[in-house]
């Protein structure tokens, strides 16, 4: 029967009598875990920010009518040339409308799918921004502002004004920052736009949009779907695009294929539209976790070396304990207890230091045009990182204490005493 009270008292006495070695071992754990927490919170925060540059603005599935040549040409309908080699030059695209037929019922159908978080309509058209006698070409997109802000974080890219202002103000526009600077316009001013089929429509600027892509910000602007329908002279059911947001991005490919087959539309999934995105994310995550694991392993070896030296300095104490009746198992438990106490104290301090440093980084100013609403360095305070850090502290000190204490268990006290 193990007397834990006696074993823990002896372990505490050993730790306090060699306070410098104990502090060194505990600090080894502390700085190892603290560095791990700081690094992984910072790097995953940056990775998340970079991923959001794509995910925030790109739908998981983009549904639209694509202008393309007919797959079946008239010559292929002739039975006497079915098995021949047909060569047709200068094939023209088939006549088709940009409008999605039955767009509103399709949106209702998509939103009833359990994998779909939301499906929002859009109308995209080319316009001219008119400033006096100057006409500047650009793009106008009709949206449901509140839904776009909810599903695609549009609010993160509005540097002045708000999505709600665009929703609640008739004949309003959210102007790209590049166009606003070109024309010296600000929130509250009015701008005239003209569609390619003619006509002039004055719109009130209720916000400034900045995507971080200069070429896009110089031509892009947003308004409500109703306003675009009025500008184009179209009916209330005129929709050119449907953007779908899913709960699980992995469902994008199969659902896009199903939409194409079911509705005879073009559906582009995010993995096809941004093939480099997944590769970049995978590589960044691989580097992050490789560096983190390496840091933990290096810290583990440092802990092992410190505890190993601590036990060898206690050889006389081991001999005395065995000579007074303590078994080899009791000696092993004493040094294992010391290691676990050091691991616990160092692990807790490491978590505190890591949290403090990560919180400090989170206050450092950081500005980027790609994410104008981000004011400080991004930090990912995932509780899992703290659980992993503390678990590793306990596991590494367990191994660091177990291996040397296993040797101490087999020490012959007579040889040590004679050696003295």
Distance linking N and C termini? 32 Å
Count of separate structural domains: 2
As a whole number of angstroms, the C-alpha radius of gyration is 34 Å
Would you tell me the structural class of the helices and strands?
alpha+beta
- Quote the average pLDDT: 81
What does this molecule look like?
- By secondary structure, the protein is α+β, with helices and mostly antiparallel strands.
- Helices cover 53% and strands 16% of the residues.
- The chain is built from 15 helices and ten strands.
- The chain has a six-stranded mixed barrel with strand order 2-3-8-5-7-6.
- Helix 1 (4-17) crosses helix 13.
Q: Which labels suit this protein?
A:
alpha+beta; 2 domains; 6-stranded mixed beta barrel
What are the SSEs and their pairings?
Layout: H1 4-17, H2 19-55, E1 61-64, H3 103-111, E2 116-131, E3 134-143, H4 145-152, E4 158-161, H5 163-168, E5 172-176, H6 177-182, E6 190-195, E7 201-209, H7 214-217, E8 220-224, H8 225-232, E9 241-246, H9 252-263, E10 266-269, H10 270-273, H11 275-312, H12 315-323, H13 328-361, H14 383-409, H15 413-419
Parallel strand pairs: 3-8, 5-7
Antiparallel strand pairs: 1-9, 1-10, 2-3, 2-6, 2-9, 4-7, 5-8, 6-7
Helix pairs in contact: 1-13, 2-11, 2-13, 2-14, 11-14, 12-15, 13-14
